[in-house]
Specification:
single chain, mainly alpha, 8 helices
Length: 190
């Protein structure tokens, strides 16, 4: 009954919007992007560049299809491993989800800076080591500067003010959290 409802809903939206089934084939459009954060794409582009330097021709697209496929297979294998470890009770389900999502993001063909946050959410509920907390704070702080809009018709100096406001807010939040933890009696540094 649920699958029938799903199929009817998809068919209805497809017919009403008039987009036909083009949205299904449009899902792979992101793979045309060469994301420098994707390990598999970086390896493929690097190998293609090396091939051109050696005079072998530009085979970057062919190499990308191989490296990206291998990356997805590795991620799927790792996710199955985490699923089995969760089934056996060797890892908590939330931890397994976080680690699996992290592996998927690392080996995915296209990675945007905020994709890692998909893994951070379950990992934050599971991982409680100081190293993990510090790494997440540093990564989140750095990505808040990389992902900020640049320009967009804003008056000159506005982007600098946005960066400055982000730094002040980040420092203020860290300081407020530190003070709140100290007042509650929690040891901040182990």
């Amino acid at each position: 009954a649920q699958l029938l409802l799903l199929a009817v809903s998809i068919a209805a939206v497809t017919i009403i919007t008039g987009i036909d089934i083009g949205w299904i084939f449009g899902q792979g459009g992101a793979a045309t992007i060469r994301s420098w954060l994707s390990a598999t794409t970086s390896v493929g582009v690097g190998a293609g560049f090396l091939g051109m330097l050696l005079g072998l021709g530009d085979h970057t697209e062919a190499i990308l299809s191989v490296t990206r496929t291998v990356g997805v297979i590795i991620a799927a294998g790792f996710m199955l491993r985490m699923l089995y470890a969760t089934f056996r009770g060797a890892i908590h389900p939330v931890g397994g989800l976080g680690v699996s999502t992290f592996a998927l993001v690392v080996f995915f063909p296209v990675v945007q800076p905020w994709y890692i946050l998909w893994a951070v959410l379950p990992l934050a509920a599971w991982a409680n080591r100081r190293f993990f907390r510090m790494a997440v704070m540093i990564y989140s702080g750095l990505m808040s500067f990389i992902v900020l809009p640049r320009g967009l018709g804003l008056p000159p100096g506005t982007v600098f003010v946005i960066y400055l406001a982000a730094v002040v807010t980040f420092v203020a939040l860290i300081a407020a959290g530190w003070v709140a933890l100290r007042r509650s009696g929690v040891r901040v540094l182990n």
